[in-house]
Amino acid sequence: MASLLYRLGRFAFRRRWYVTVMWVVVLFALGGASAKAPEAPNSTFSAPGIEAQRAFDLMEQRFPGAQADGATARMVFVAPAGQKVTAPANRAAIDRAVTRAADGQQVVSAVGPFQARAVSKDGSTAYATVTYTVAADDLTDAAKDTLRGAAQSARDAGLTVEMGGTALATTPSAGGAGEVIGILVAAVVLLFTFGSLAASGLPLLTAVLGVGISMTAITVLSDPFGLSSTTGTLAMMLGLACGIDYALFVVSRFREERANGHSEDVAAGLAVGTAGSAVVFAGLTVVIALAGLSVVGIPMLTKMGLAAAGAVAVAVLVCLTLVPALIGFWPRAVLSRRYRRTGRRVQGVLGNFGSRWAEFVQRHPFPVRFTAMCALIVLALPVLGLQLGMPGDETKPTSSTERRAYDDLAQGFGPGFNGPLTVVVDVRDADDPKAAVAAVEKRIGATPGVVSVSTPRFNAAGDTAVFSAVPADAPTDKKTEDLVHTIRDERAATVAGTGATFEVTGSTALNIDVAQKVQRALIPYLVVVVGLAVVLLLMVFRSIFIPLKAAMGFLLSVLAALGCVVAVFQWGWGASLIGVESTGPIMSMMPIFLVGIVFGLAMDYEVFLVSRIREAYVHGEGAGQSITTGFRYSARVVAAAALIMIAVFAGFVTADESMIKMIGFGLAIAVLFDAFVVRMAFVPGVLALLGDKVAWLPKWLDRILPHLDVEGESLSRAHPVPRKQQDEEPENREETSVPG
């Protein structure tokens, strides 16, 4: 592996023009194709294999056209204090507003509250429903203006009017200005790390180019593969972060090999052969983790995972080819100013912070490891109170009209009104369909926790009926979840003797079913992803303990990160500091997202750091000294890479979409824990306690596993450090002369 990548890096360095032009041509070709590609389809969510999805599919089959994708708007009217919406003046104002909304463009129907009996018992609140012929994204400005004007006319009459539904909903931005700030922070970190504008700008340039290729490719493939406009958000996030980090390691290793006295082309080859090998296997673990999201069985999650895996694969290819090619254009510019001026560099043989920290951990391995473990376990405790769901309008800021409409409806009609259960009754085998549906409706309506049920509505064939059951509690309340299970558990008794059967769906039931589906898939997902990665790390490091230690450290960091997500987004601790105005359940897919992505990123730092430690061990150093050597050369670069990841992910915390905000926060905090607590404290503590035993591998397993030579042992034999450099390198001095 190392020899193959060495030849690739040296080829890219020498044929820099061909390699660079090739990538630019690919970018422009995909850009041109994406400009002509059909528009990405609207985001749709489905979860095969759950009852709520089966019921929804049955509704689409039996009620053709009823489940249209047209936008809807709900106008919520609240009378002034002490008045009722049924008062003559208020009623007239509401009727005028509904009539005006009905006259708008693209409107199918506008049903007023007095026509649909949509008035609260106390008469304080009412709502009207406006349905459109097209989806929200296709509504004209004139149609939206008419709706806003209708609402304003009722406000002018003294009523409070808020708007819910999809008609006026805006498409949230992925990261906004935070993305730009994250990239700027990454640039500053790179500048401090390298002390060279060229070396700092090169990882940013290649990462942005890689993301451009990935995003244009996703746009081209969006129509044939049904990729929605939100599919690429995760791909952009990971492609940018991984692209910067991977290039950072290769550029850093090139500078080191130049300082060791190697020629420019050999140094480029060695950088790709050693650091590039770590990039390949680190990237492969990320790809495995992301592709493994398909285990969950949710198409949207599978598409997001595969798109992000493709972006990471592109980042790896760019790092292995374009990075050494661009280095070839400015081989001296990427070196530090001190090196270019004097031919000397800060070697830090025994004196840099990384080596001092490694020696400190080796002197106190148990306290350091114990402290790191305890801190992460404490941070993980909120996971015990994890509540999964799909955040809706209740989690939007109170400044939004959707949130105020949600609150007004909950106050006027009860907490469960915003999350009614939809019951789909199949009476194909019933002797008396109407009597069967009436029996089911009566039984469900009498279930404790059900406030009311609507009048059943039959399809044209008369073999299927649909009605709503309004729970007494809010959609995200545990009592509502118990109610759904109760209705389903009593299904046999409910339909006994009727010949009918029914299923429960609706947004509330769908969220409950998805959460349970994800929870059931989490263990198989962990087994698949962690199992494959452990096998991969066995081949890379040829040790039993290193993969097990890596998996344990990952579990600590991901649980601590998930605990912080629960504390902030569910409990509200410090939520206002990142712009979270309302708390609620954690997005159902968040745990498996966090597990998959953080596992891949955790393996990045494991491979980068431990491969350098093992490289020193393979080249003859003792167990303790190899830890010090690995940290001497890698700690600063790993810390810089982690800070860049944190900055990029934290930029997405500024997103309007709560899902992206939550993912950005979770990834940023997870990288913080994994890089600075697990990899910098827990890992060296465990390695120091194990000593030489860390390299133990059963002989039978050693014979089975292929030899990959990630540490570049064959390269060190073929390209040893020049004798002059070895003779001149002092043992305890910070500066080392380097041939110019």
UniProtKB/TrEMBL annotation:
Protein location: Cell membrane
Recorded GO terms, molecular function? transmembrane transporter activity
Task: Cite the Gene3D superfamilies for this sequence.
Answer: Multidrug efflux transporter AcrB transmembrane domain
Q: Where is this region: Disordered?
A: 716-740
InterPro entries (UniProt xref):
Acrflvin-R (IPR001036), MMPL_dom (IPR004869), Mycobact_MmpL (IPR050545)
Q: Where are the transmembrane segments?
A: 180-197, 204-222, 234-254, 266-293, 305-330, 370-390, 522-541, 553-573, 585-605, 633-653, 665-690
Bilayer topology: Multi-pass membrane protein
Q: Looking at the UniProt record for this protein, which Gene Ontology cellular component terms does it annotate, in alphabetical order? A: plasma membrane
Pfam families given in the database record: MMPL
Coarsely, its chief localization is: membrane
Does the record bear Membrane in its keywords?
yes
- Domain Membrane transport protein MMPL, by residue range, is 45-368, 458-697
Q: What keywords are annotated for this sequence in UniProt?
A: Cell membrane, Membrane, Transmembrane, Transmembrane helix
PANTHER family the UniProt entry points to: MEMBRANE PROTEIN MJ1562-RELATED, MEMBRANE PROTEIN SCO6666-RELATED
Q: Which family does it belong to?
A: Belongs to the resistance-nodulation-cell division (RND) (TC 2.A.6) family. MmpL subfamily.
- According to UniProt, the name of this protein is MMPL family transporter
